[in-house]
């Protein structure tokens, strides 16, 4: 009799273990500890022609406002490029001597 009662309780408790939080609003899931991935970006050149500035990031020529590798170019300076990625600012600086090309 005790075994039968224990077996019945175990069978009935199975679905209860799979229940979700009853206080969580419908259509939502449990929070996930997912951190945004930080894309590897390589600034290889900055090109200035008068007021126009371009940068070469990951082999792609970009200007202010352009998207590149999941980011957006905010500004291009003579020694750095400022990007927006996921609502945060990210600065790419020269890792070695600058390869600045200026034309009249």
TrEMBL record:
<protein>
    <recommendedName>
        <fullName>Type II secretion system protein GspB C-terminal domain-containing protein</fullName>
    </recommendedName>
</protein>
<dbReference type="InterPro" id="IPR032389">
    <property type="entry name" value="GspB_C"/>
</dbReference>
<feature type="signal peptide">
    <location>
        <begin position="1"/>
        <end position="18"/>
    </location>
</feature>
<feature type="domain" description="Type II secretion system protein GspB C-terminal">
    <location>
        <begin position="51"/>
        <end position="89"/>
    </location>
</feature>
<dbReference type="GO" id="GO:0015627">
    <property type="term" value="C:type II protein secretion system complex"/>
</dbReference>
<dbReference type="Pfam" id="PF16537">
    <property type="entry name" value="T2SSB"/>
</dbReference>
<keyword id="KW-0732">Signal</keyword>
